[in-house]
C-alpha cells in the first residue's frame, strides 16, 4: 500500500493538508515541507534543490559538521574519566541543533548560557506544535487531491491516508473528534467519578435492582451496546440476564423489559409510575420543550393535550374523513407502478412508500402536497430526514449532564439548532398561508385548520399558541411518515419470502374485490387474512421496536426488584414479539396464528404492542393502520411481484436494519411488478 501511494499514485497523493499548527508556523504554507502541491511548491523545491541542498552545498558544510562532532567527542572523553553514565540523548540534541544553527545562520548557542536555554525552549515548543499536527496521527499525512481507484476498492474516495510503521490506515476527521472528545471526557470527569466511588463506599445500598451487564467506570454500558440493531442486541442480553434487566448509560440508569409479562407490569400494572418521558436533547428541542403529546412530561398539561388530540385530531370520524385523500394518493402510486411495469424493470418500493406516506401526511396535516414539487419536494424530504435523525442521534449531554460542550465540539448542537430553525420557519409559513384571509376554502378540512380553530376559540384551559401547534405537527410528521412506510415494506418482504402466505393473501384480496380495479377502505374491512399479515408483520418488525422511552415518576417495585425514580425505561416490543412464553414458533412468519384470534393492535394484549399500551399509547393508531392496510391491499391486488434478475426469495434481507427510532431495512426493497389481469375489467 505504501508503494501504491508513494509511487504508483504519487501525483494524486502529493499535496499536504491544511493543519492549524503547520500553517501558522510555516507562514501559511510559504515553506517547502507544508505547502500545497502546485506551481509555487515546484518553484520552491527548485530553489531548495539547486541552491540549498545540492551535493556541493552539502559538502561545503562538512568542516562545520566535523568540528562540532569533534567537540562532542571531546566532551564525552572528559566525562569518561569519571566512569559515570553519559546522557547521549542530550548530547545528540545539542550537537544537531548547533550544526543546524551554524549551517543556517552562522551562529551557535552551544555555550550561550541563558540565551542557549531560551533558544532551546523556543525550539522545543515549536517542535511540540508540529508533533500535535503530524506525529500524533502518523509520519506522513497526505490528503488525496483527485478521485482515485485503489486496488480492491469499490469506488473512488476523497479522504486522508496515513502511513505509519509500515501499516496503511484510513482515518476520518469525525473519528479524531470522537477520540479527542472521549479523552477530555475521561480526564475532566475523573474528579466526579472519584466522588461517586467514595460515595458508593461510604453509603449503605438499600435498593435491589434487576441484574445487568457490568460496565466501565463513568461510561457504564455505553461501549457494549450495538446501535446498528439495538433491539436485537438488548434481546440477546435478556437471554443472559432475564426479561427485566438494568443498564448504566453514562450517568443514567436504564431499565429494559423484553417479555410480555414484564411489558404488562410496566404498561398496565404500574402504568402511572412509568408514564412520564425523559428529558432528552433532540426530542426536547424538536418538540418545542415538550409542548407536543409524544414527548411531553406526564401531568395536567399532557392530559389536556391528549384530550385535544383524541377528540379533535384522531377520532374515528376524523380518520374516516381523510379516506378520500388516502385512496386518491394510493391510486396515484398504483398508476406509477403500472407505468413502470411496462418495462419489466425492478421498482423501488421503499422510495414509493416513503413518498406516498409523506404526501398523505402533508395533505392531511396542512392540505398541501410536495409529490410533484421538484426541488421543493426534495428540500422538504431532506428536512424531514434530518429531523428524524435528530430524534434518535446520540447526544453526550443526555447521558453526561455536565458535558454539553462535547455536543458543541462535535457540531451536533449546531446541527440540531439549524434543523429546528428550518422546520420552525416551514411551519410558520404554512400557518401564515392558512391564516391568509384571501385563502380559498379547502375541499377537505385539514388538521392545521382544526388546530387554528381551537387556537381562536380557546375552549380549553391550556391556551394554544403557534408553538403548541408546531409541536403537534412535528409529532404527526415524524410518527406518521416513517412508521407506515416501514410496515408496508416489511410486510412485502415477509410475504415475498413466504410464497404460501403471499398466495393466500392475494387470493383473499382478489376473491373479495372481484372485478373492481381498486381496493377502497370499505373493502379492506373484509380482508381478514390481510389484517393477519399486518399483525404478524408488526409482531416480528414493529416500526418503533423500543417504543418511545419512558421515565419513572417515583420509586416502585416490579417482580421483587426496586426501581428508583428517574429511571429511563425501554420496552422492547421487538423482543416481546419473540417471547417464547407468549408465542409458538416465535421466529416463524405465520399470519394464520391470528385467524380466529382476539389479539388486536390496540394495546389490550401485551404480547403484541407495536403501538404501546396504557396512558402513553400512540393515539394515531387508527390513522396509521388505515394507511398500511389500504396500501398493502392494492399492491397485492393489482400486481404479481417477482424478484429482480439474479435474485431469489431467500436473498431478501430481513436482518439488517438502519438505526433510528423507526426501523427500516438497510437496503431499499426493489421488486419487479407484473400487472394482474382482472377478469372483465379493462384495467
TrEMBL record:
Recorded GO cellular component terms are:
membrane
User: Which SUPFAM superfamilies does the record associate with it?
Assistant: Cytochrome P450
Q: Which InterPro entries match?
A: Cyt_P450 (IPR001128), Cyt_P450_CS (IPR017972), Cyt_P450_E_grp-I (IPR002401), Cyt_P450_sf (IPR036396)
Residues that bind heme: 618
Q: Which Pfam families match?
A: p450
Query: What are the alphabetically sorted keywords of the record?
Result: Heme, Iron, Membrane, Metal-binding, Monooxygenase, Oxidoreductase, Transmembrane, Transmembrane helix
The question of whether Iron is a record keyword is answered with yes
Its subcellular locations are: Membrane
What's the family? Belongs to the cytochrome P450 family.
Record PANTHER family: CYTOCHROME P450 83B1-LIKE (PTHR47955:SF22), CYTOCHROME P450 FAMILY 71 PROTEIN (PTHR47955)
Cofactor(s) listed: heme
CDD domains this protein is in? CYP71-like
What is the recorded membrane topology of this protein? Single-pass membrane protein
Q: What is this protein called?
A: Cytochrome P450
In terms of superkingdom, the source organism counts as Eukaryota
Task: Kindly list the GO molecular function terms attached to this UniProt entry.
Answer: heme binding; iron ion binding; monooxygenase activity; oxidoreductase activity, acting on paired donors, with incorporation or reduction of molecular oxygen
Regions that span the bilayer: 177-198
Amino acid at each position: 500500500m505504501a508503494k501504491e501511494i508513494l509511487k504508483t499514485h504519487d501525483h494524486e497523493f502529493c499535496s499536504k493538508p491544511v493543519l492549524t499548527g503547520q500553517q501558522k508556523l510555516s507562514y501559511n504554507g510559504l515553506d517547502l515541507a507544508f505547502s500545497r502541491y502546485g506551481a509555487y511548491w515546484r518553484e520552491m523545491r527548485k530553489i531548495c534543490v539547486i541552491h540549498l541542498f545540492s551535493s556541493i552545498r552539502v559538502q561545503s558544510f562538512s568542516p562545520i559538521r566535523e568540528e562540532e562532532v569533534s567537540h562532542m567527542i571531546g566532551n564525552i572523553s572528559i566525562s569518561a574519566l569519571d566512569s559515570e553514565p553519559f546522557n547521549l540523548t542530550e548530547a545528540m540534541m545539542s550537537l544537531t541543533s548547533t550544526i543546524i544553527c551554524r549551517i543556517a545562520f552562522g551562529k551557535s548557542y552551544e555555550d550561550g548560557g541563558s540565551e542557549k536555554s531560551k533558544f532551546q525552549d523556543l525550539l522545543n515548543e515549536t517542535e511540540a506544535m508540529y508533533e500535535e499536527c503530524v506525529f500524533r496521527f502518523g509520519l506522513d499525512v497526505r490528503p488525496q487531491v483527485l478521485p482515485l481507484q485503489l486496488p480492491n476498492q469499490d469506488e473512488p474516495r476523497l479522504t486522508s491516508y496515513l502511513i505509519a510503521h509500515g501499516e496503511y490506515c484510513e482515518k476520518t476527521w469525525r473519528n479524531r473528534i470522537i477520540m479527542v472528545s472521549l479523552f477530555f471526557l475521561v480526564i475532566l470527569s475523573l474528579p466526579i467519578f472519584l466522588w461517586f466511588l467514595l460515595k458508593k463506599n461510604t453509603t449503605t445500598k438499600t435498593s435491589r435492582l434487576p441484574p445487568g451487564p457490568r460496565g466501565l467506570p463513568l461510561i457504564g454500558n455505553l461501549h457494549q451496546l450495538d446501535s446498528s440493531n439495538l433491539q436485537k442486541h438488548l434481546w440477546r442480553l435478556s437471554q443472559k440476564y432475564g426479561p427485566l434487566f438494568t443498564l448504566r448509560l453514562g450517568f443514567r440508569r436504564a431499565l429494559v423489559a423484553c417479555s410480555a409479562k414484564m411489558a404488562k407490569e410496566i404498561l398496565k400494572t404500574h402504568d402511572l409510575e412509568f408514564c412520564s418521558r425523559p428529558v432528552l436533547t433532540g426530542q426536547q428541542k424538536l418538540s418545542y420543550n415538550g409542548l407536543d403529546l409524544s414527548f411531553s412530561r406526564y401531568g395536567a398539561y399532557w392530559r389536556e393535550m391528549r384530550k385535544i388530540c383524541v377528540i379533535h385530531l384522531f377520532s374515528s370520524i376524523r380518520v374516516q374523513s381523510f379516506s378520500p385523500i388516502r385512496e386518491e394518493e394510493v391510486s396515484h402510486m398504483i398508476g406509477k407502478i403500472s407505468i413502470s411495469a411496462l418495462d419489466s424493470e425492478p421498482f423501488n418500493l421503499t422510495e414509493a412508500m416513503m413518498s406516498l406516506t409523506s404526501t398523505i401526511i402533508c395533505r392531511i396535516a396542512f392540505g398541501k402536497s410536495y409529490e410533484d414539487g421538484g426541488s421543493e419536494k426534495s428540500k422538504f424530504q431532506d428536512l424531514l430526514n434530518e429531523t428524524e435523525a435528530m430524534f434518535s442521534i446520540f447526544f453526550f449531554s443526555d447521558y453526561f449532564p455536565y458535558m454539553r460542550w462535547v455536543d458543541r465540539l462535535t457540531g451536533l448542537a449546531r446541527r440540531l439548532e439549524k434543523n429546528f430553525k428550518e422546520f420552525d420557519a416551514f411551519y410558520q409559513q404554512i400557518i401564515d398561508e392558512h391564516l391568509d384571509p384571501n385563502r380559498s376554502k379547502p375541499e377537505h378540512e385539514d388538521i392545521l385548520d382544526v388546530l387554528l380553530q381551537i387556537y381562536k376559540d380557546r375552549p380549553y384551559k391550556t391556551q394554544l399558541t403557534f408553538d403548541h401547534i408546531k409541536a403537534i405537527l412535528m409529532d404527526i410528521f415524524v410518527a406518521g411518515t416513517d412508521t407506515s412506510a416501514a410496515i408496508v415494506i416489511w410486510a412485502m418482504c415477509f410475504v415475498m419470502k413466504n410464497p404460501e402466505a403471499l398466495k393466500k393473501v392475494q387470493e383473499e384480496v382478489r376473491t373479495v374485490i372481484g372485478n373492481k380495479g381498486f381496493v377502497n377502505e370499505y373493502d379492506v374491512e373484509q380482508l381478514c387474512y390481510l389484517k393477519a399479515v399486518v399483525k404478524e408483520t408488526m409482531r416480528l418488525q414493529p416500526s418503533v421496536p423500543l417504543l418511545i422511552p419512558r421515565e419513572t415518576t417515583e420509586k416502585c417495585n416490579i417482580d421483587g426488584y426496586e426501581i428508583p425514580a428517574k429511571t429511563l425505561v425501554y420496552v422492547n416490543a421487538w423482543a416481546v414479539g419473540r417471547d417464547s412464553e407468549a408465542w409458538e414458533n416465535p421466529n416463524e412468519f405465520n399470519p394464520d396464528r391470528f385467524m380466529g384470534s382476539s389479539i388486536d393492535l390496540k394495546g389490550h394484549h401485551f404480547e403484541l404492542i407495536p403501538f404501546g399500551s396504557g396512558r402513553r399509547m400512540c393515539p394515531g393508531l387508527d390513522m396509521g393502520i388505515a394507511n398500511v392496510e389500504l396500501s398493502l391491499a392494492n399492491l397485492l391486488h393489482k400486481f404479481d411481484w417477482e424478484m429482480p434478475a439474479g435474485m431469489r426469495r431467500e436473498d431478501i434481507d430481513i436482518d439488517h436494519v438502519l438505526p433510528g427510532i423507526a426501523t427500516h431495512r438497510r437496503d431499499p426493497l426493489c421488486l419487479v411488478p407484473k400487472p394482474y389481469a382482472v377478469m372483465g375489467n379493462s384495467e
